């Protein structure tokens, strides 16, 4: 661990401790986390997984992501929006995913809300409209925020559009994951690599 809160791996690259040891988390951190996601299906998937992650570790969700994709029709919003009670029962019997009725039903409701949003610019335009004027510059993990005024406003707007399980903390995690904010530690090899923020 350095003074900047990162861990330098055997490959010489500096990462935060959460991404330093588990190969799955390291691969996700190095290639995906914080990179811009601007397509509807990609954002719907990330929003859904962040909601399922609430109260659990991200590693748990990441390990289950292939099963989530299979269970939720590749996170195609049109397909998920058509799910009915039989699909809810099917999902609650699927050991490959997180079997939480409220989260399953929220994902279906969010698919319907995503489809409805197309008439008003779509989910990507709405989510990205909450990009802040500046991004955090954390030196240590303790300096990484868990909410922001923008994530509070995004959560409020999504709820007004019929989305569920989209609180300010979950929405800040979404904003981090899809590149709207850059919370890579200043010493990390990934800092500033999204193309959205200069540093």
UniProtKB/TrEMBL annotation:
Species per Swiss-Prot/TrEMBL record: Georgenia wutianyii
Stretches assigned to coiled coil: none
Protein name per UniProt: DNA-3-methyladenine glycosylase I
SUPFAM superfamilies: DNA-glycosylase (SSF48150)
Gene3D superfamilies assigned: Hypothetical protein, domain 2
